[in-house]
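Example 306.
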Amino acid sequence: MFSKNAKIFVAGHKGLVGSSIVKKLISLGYKKILKIDKKKLDLRDQNKVLNFFKKQNIDAVINAAGTVGGIAANNKYRAEFIYDNLTIQNNIINACYKNKVKSLIFLGSSSIYPKNTKIPIKEEYLLSGYLEKTNEPYAVAKIAGIKLCESYNYQYGTNYKCLIPCNVYGQNDNYDKQKSHFFPALILKSITAKKKNKKFITLWGSGRARREILHSDDLADACIYFLKKRTKEKIINIGSNFDMTILNYAKLILKEIDYDCEIILDKRKPNGTFRKLLDSSKAKKYGWEPKISLKDGLKSIIKKYS
Ligand SMILES: NC(=O)c1ccc[n+]([C@@H]2O[C@H](COP(=O)([O-])OP(=O)(O)OC[C@H]3O[C@@H](n4cnc5c(N)ncnc54)[C@H](OP(=O)(O)O)[C@@H]3O)[C@@H](O)[C@H]2O)c1
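Predicted structure in complex with NAP:
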């Protein structure tokens, strides 16, 4: 559907997901990858975003820009999580429509599904129950983005697809102690414990909450695959089809870095949603499946940060 000369704007190209997308596009031979720094274009600025789109002749957009983080950041910076994400996605989606951009990939998140829902979670469970309180502002913004895409598709016949990934990890992850997701946080804690010969690491919550994780290079692959693929459904879960408790992830990381220490569970801290394993059978039906095993993905990251 897209030639290698198509101009593809990757919003958020420096982030975990965006940098994997750029890497994948380059490896596939795409020649016109459009990137712009946040300092030059704050995507919350509607006029600047409209002018940028007007000047460029963009064929497709992958939106990997947003305010993103783990449970602590989601809970603390609630205003930024809802305002930034709503504004960035409104500006990008509307600019796509106004400038006749043919295709757009919008990224949701498994946190948009109800806190208590059937597992594995199907796309149609969206809006069937209450959200998890700690990330409600972020989830509400993401749901609004999906509804915006759905409405433009319905009213104007656009082809805007929403991919709903599980937790993502990868080479360019956020290792900021306050903002990181559980997996990079665990890797950082474990490597630091080993370096400083600490006797224990501490996990938030009971350790019993289960999480599904996907390598950012797999998500990048899915973004490009579905940008090109004709699909009837426009909301598609993208997961690894496997989840595990946070405690077991911690044990796996410690084993992988060859360090033995106690794991303390801080049960005063929130768990977040207990389980959010996605049903990714729709993606599989369209011919997409993840390729990077947890063992290989983890090994490559430990190598980088050890
Ligand atoms: N990470 C996950 O576990 C996960 C899971 C599911 C879905 N997603 C979704 O995937 C997308 C990308 O997430 P990520 O983990 O790659 O996040 P990330 O690493 O934090 O990257 C976000 C990117 O957005 C850019 N950005 C933020 N605010 C901006 C603004 N106002 N103007 C221009 N650029 C701005 C950042 O620029 P700077 O680098 O200059 O700050 C960064 O490049 C998000 O939509 C997220 O919701 C992520």
